[in-house]
Amino acid sequence: MNSKCIIVCLVMLSIGFHAKAQENFDPDKKFFEAREMALNGQREEAIELALKIVEKYPGYSDVWILLGRIHSWEGKNDSASVYFERAIEESPDYEDAYIGYLDNLFWAEQYDNAEKVLDRAYKQFGEGASSQLKYRKSRLYYYREDYKEAIDIAESLYENEAKIEGLLSYIQRLKRLTIKSAVGFTFDHDSFEGQISPWQTYSLYARTQAGFMGNVIGRVTHSHRFDGYGTQYELDAYPSLGENSYAYLNVGVSNASFFPNYRFGTSIYWSLPKAFEFDIGYRHLNFSETTHIITGSVGKYTGNWWLNLRANHVPSSAGGSISGNFQARYYFKGAEDYFMFQFSTGVSPDEEDRDLQSQLLDSYRGRVGYQQLWSPKWLAYAFVGYSYDEITPDNYRPNLNISVGTEFRF
Q1: CA-CA distance, 114 to 124, in Å (whole number)?
Q2: Which helix (H) or strand (E) holds 361?
Q3: What is the rounded CA–CA span in Å between residue 352 and residue 208?
Q4: Distance between CA 337 and CA 381 in Å, rounded?
Q5: Fold classified for 22-176
Q6: 117 contacts 106 by C-beta, under 8 angstroms
């Protein structure tokens, strides 16, 4: 009888120890498991595990933040706000909770609530606020269309080398929205080896904001080529299509044989996650015959660099042709100051200093240059390029191009 009691007691103790072992777990290990589940799309499982963690460790703010982010990703913004509030309640001096909360309210377009949370954060951290929190302050100004305040903060962050993904792309977007009006002048000189006389091309343009059409640019280009003169008139527009997208429209006419009789172009640009950009478009050039061109590019902002690869396809019954252009910019203290280099094959429909009418068999071009905003109102640039164009299998046309320009903003 005594032995039976001893056995029963041992079994009960074993069950108790097992239950206790189940209750006690490493919360950090479980948190990382839950986060991995959430990132892999197992959000229901992640929520279940996260709730188990905070049931035993209610002061674990990172778990409350994770619960808030998961619900925000699911579009359950009000529920997410509850979790972010709990995270701030547990750790009012933990900035990640405010940042997650602000992201959630931005996605929900609850800008008044976002302003209240931002005020709470700045009361807590003051001048010690991190670059991530300051970036959210800029975003709030952006969403409320106060672009001047937004870009002042963003450019200050860039000058102080803040490590914020997509900051350059964001500043470029703000630039399109803050520059109200400008006038500019460009000059291109092309010299050739052989019997072709040099070309000179002058361009005068004016730019302004025009409501839903965004930046609208009127341009007059006058050129001396092949011992003749000609002028092209163009109009560009960049209408906004939402927070992360905009369009490009171009129309032009000319009385010169070396410019299209008329031209039309359009593209749609998207800003993508991880600081990528993508566009796809169409160009229509009418000379004695019409040329249709499909164009597209992918770009990436990484650190101080912007990298872009563009391809152009001219369809035809023979299969068509493809040209390509790779361009890189290295930005210095601001989003207008950069060194650029590019390499291209074929001729791009957007390079007006090139011979768009000749059927070039092979063309290669290298180009380097520098642009700088000298003052809040004056910008200037200078580029030099060399191209090697195959006119016929036995006829090549080397070309040295020098391009300078300036712009006054007001």
Answers
A1: 15
A2: none
A3: 22
A4: 9
A5: 1.25.40
A6: no
Residue 3 pLDDT: 57
pLDDT in tens, 145-200: 899 999 999 999 998 889 898 898 899 888 878 878 999 999 999 998 877 889 99
CATH of 181-409, one of 3.40.640.10, 2.40.160.40, 3.40.50.2300, 3.40.30.10: 2.40.160.40
Beta-bridge partner residues of 263: 252, 285
Total Cβ atoms within 10 A of residue 197: 12
Q: Cα dist. 398→28, 227, 355 in Å?
A: 65, 18, 12
Chain Cα centroid distance, residue 94: 29
Name the more confident of 175 and 53: 53
What single string gives the DSSP state of each residue in 4-62? HHHHHHHHHHHHHHHHHHHH---HHHHHHHHHHHHHTT-HHHHHHHHHHHHHH-TT-HH
* Domain chopping of the chain, boundaries: 22-176, 181-409
Let me know if 268 is exposed, middle or buried by CB neighbors in 10 A (0-12, 13-18, 19+). Answer: middle
- The whole-model pTM stands at 0.75
DSSP 169-236: HHHHHHHHHH--EEEEEEEEEEEESSSPPPEEEEEEEEEEE-GGGBEEEEEEEEEEETTEEEEEEEEE
What pLDDT is attached to residue 17?
45
Query: Tell me: the pLDDT tens digits for 76-86?
Result: 999 999 999 99
How is residue 72 written in tokens? Answer: 């925000």
Residues 6+ apart with CB under 8 A from 7: none
Given the structure tokens 């409501």, which residue do they identify?
211
Query: Within 13 A of 372's CA, how many CA atoms are on the CB side?
Result: 6
Structure tokens at 216: 């609208």
Alpha-carbon distance of 202 to 127, in angstroms, equals 50
